[in-house]
Amino acid sequence: MWKDFKEFAFKGNVVDLAVAVVIGAAFSAIVTSLVENMITPIIGIMMNGIDFSNLSITYKSATINYGLFIQSIVDFFIVAGSIFLFIRLLMKFKRKREEDPVEEVLEVNAQEELLKEIRDLLKAQRNNQK
Fold this sequence. Notes:
single chain; mainly alpha; two-stranded antiparallel sheet
């Protein structure tokens, strides 16, 4: 059982997935900070200081903070858009790198070169006989 677990845990796919999760969490923290500290205040300025987070309805002892829900939706779209643009930029660089022309040098071995010479000589001989 221990052997099977080691094979599973140390396969390349599992380790790659773990690294992706850690990097994704770090990237999420960066994007969340960008949204909360830079983008949301700019949007607030553009919308004449409207702050959705303070909107709520109180009925008896219950408070429904629908403004926080609206703010979460706005944050989601901003985060999703940021991640989309980042991934699109990465894919653009990847495609550009793949499209760079790679000059292929065909190596011809000695046998092929000799066969080509024999072919050319036979063609020349045939043309001279006609």
